[in-house]
Write a structure and sequence with these properties.
Oligomer: single chain
Strand order of the largest sheet: 6-7-8-3-9-10-12-11
Helix content: 25-40%
Shape: globular
Number of helices: 10
Amino acid sequence: MSPVVEVEDLKVYFGRRRGGTVKSVDGVSFDIAPGETLGLAGESGSGKSTIARALLRINEPTSGRVVIGGRDVTKLRGAALKAFRRQTQMVYQDPYDSLDPRMRIGATVEEALLVRGVPASRRAAGVRELLDRVGLPASYARRYPHELSGGQRQRISIARALGVDPAVIVCDEAVSALDVSVRAQILNLLKDLQEEAGLAYLFISHDLSTMRFAADRVAVMYLGRLVEIGTRDQVFTAPRHPYTRALLAAVPVPGGRGRGPRARLAGEPPSPADPPAGCAFHPRCPLAAAECVTTRPELRRKDDGRITACHFVPDAPTGPGSEVTA
């Protein structure tokens, strides 16, 4: 099955008033298949949200390709770009800020149907159908956002995204502002909608426990670059990159027992405006050696079939099947 999203060597750089360049995303490649959820993990400032905004052309890529539905969206302009945005939608972290407080819920959802070109005579029925798909009664169409709970507002955000019939939905910390019980409900709703419509999700989260439940594959970012990609089980049960191991070691364990020594992560991430030479993680890495200081490791398929950017993990033998496919 062909990927619905293909990102190749994506770079997003920002200039600074005082000179210099911030390399927010620095050569990232991955793909997402229809019906698949790719999780994007990493600390704040690693570039996760910049990738999301580049996929929707909110941020303009500096270079690279973003192919969605077989079209290179980095080359689209005008009406073609407007039409593309119906294929890719975003569900934001704060459902209250992403909804117009002066609009009734029905009008908010109806806007998506208008963009899709649904005739006026069918929009009321379309609103009812979308509310039903996200588990809300039709009577909620008459309410305002402040009359709903956080979980209900997020369901409205999802209904609005579904209204344009997208192929891809970007979930940028979409459940992090919700209570744990409500978070589980929204995650289950997203999975049900994915099975129903074959949606592809880019699921961004700093919460690895949530990521473990939501994602089929996980890509780990550090300072604008991917450092490890694997299936959910690969990444969570046997991480190869030292940064991934440190992130997982920081996840709280009920009772505080049953885990070996923690892989401590010292210091703060370097500034993307002044990244260190070699491996960007070397100032904080417990395994760093002279090679790490001078040579940046590329993302390669390793001896166990995993994709990792680390000098300490042996590469797979060269030959058929050794190429990297994120």
